[in-house]
Amino acid sequence: MKIAIAGAGAMGSRFAVMLTQGGNEDLTLIDGWPEHVAAIKKNGLQADLGEDDKGVGKGVGLQVPVWLQSEVPSGEQFDLVIVFTKAMQLGQMLHDIQGVLGPQTKVLCLLNGLGHIETLEKYVAKEQIFLGNTMWTASLIGPGKVKMFGTGSVELQNVAPGQEDAARDLAEFLSKSGLNASYSADILASIYRKACVNGTMNCLTALLECNIGQFGQMAPAHAIVTQVVSEFVAVGRAEGLDLNESELVAHVESCYDSAVADHYPSMYQDLILHKRKTEIDFINGAIARKGRKYEIPTPYCDLLTAMIHAKEELLGAK
């Protein structure tokens, strides 16, 4: 299978490593960060795989083709494109790579946040779109360098009716590379479940400048998480989703003592480390907008969205 990963940041790089190690040699990275692309071209993609059971560090360097998204050549079409951009960059990425999106190209969108189908449908037919989320984690520690944490999984579903077998085949294909992918009959509920993690851990660790485990040790942590999750649940229920608030709170809090406790989520990495604007408008901001639509109060999401934007301004994020 001919694969492209559009958005080769932390998660895109992790998937590239795992897919390549799973035997998929025809894989190309596409990204918009010139320094990152240049580093991969020069030194390969350098991956820190953590430590083995004896405490010895493990690493790998992958020589993989990489294109700057503004320089993607037309005419070479892919069987599968996995989209891993930031939510606000999705439209520009799809515009830049439309020359390699053929009528048979499957597009798997694994972005954080809500509301991506409408953007995808501007560039490919609904029958080509597969929507999912992932619990894998990673950190981009510099141009061309990724650090991989713990284990994870992928859930995905076809957007168009009648593509269920294609979605199951795609999940099976990803699982052959150890990505633990499965078909979901209700991906929107799974996306809301992941969004509860993003809507708490991402913005709160960025605002407080701490990792997940450190946040979990703070006295107000439980109360804050419960309030934020309650707003996600209320909006999700207004959209017809069957969400269990107490289970979702427990799911978020399970991160505190897991293999990702020392992880600094992507919003922290973007804002604190790299002074980049964040995806807050597609996570807490999306819940705030939907809350206004359904006349549901969302004071915590309103405040967190405003605070992240204020911190972006304070740090001169671009």
TrEMBL record:
Its EC number is 1.1.1.169. It comes from the Bacteria. GO terms for cellular component: cytoplasm. The keyword Membrane does not apply. This is 2-dehydropantoate 2-reductase. Belongs to the ketopantoate reductase family. InterPro entries: 6-PGluconate_DH-like_C_sf (IPR008927), 6PGD_dom2 (IPR013328), ApbA (IPR003710), Ketopantoate_reductase (IPR050838), KPA_reductase (IPR013752), KPR_N (IPR013332), NAD(P)-bd_dom_sf (IPR036291). It is an enzyme of class 1 (oxidoreductase). The gene is apbA. It catalyses: (R)-pantoate + NADP(+) = 2-dehydropantoate + NADPH + H(+). GO terms for biological process: pantothenate biosynthetic process. One of its GO terms (molecular function) is NADP binding. Pfam families: ApbA, ApbA_C. The keyword Oxidoreductase applies. Residues 186-312 form the Ketopantoate reductase C-terminal domain. Catalyzes the NADPH-dependent reduction of ketopantoate into pantoic acid. Pathway: Cofactor biosynthesis; (R)-pantothenate biosynthesis; (R)-pantoate from 3-methyl-2-oxobutanoate: step 2/2. Residues 3-159 form the Ketopantoate reductase N-terminal domain. Keywords: NADP, Oxidoreductase, Pantothenate biosynthesis. It comes from Ligilactobacillus salitolerans.
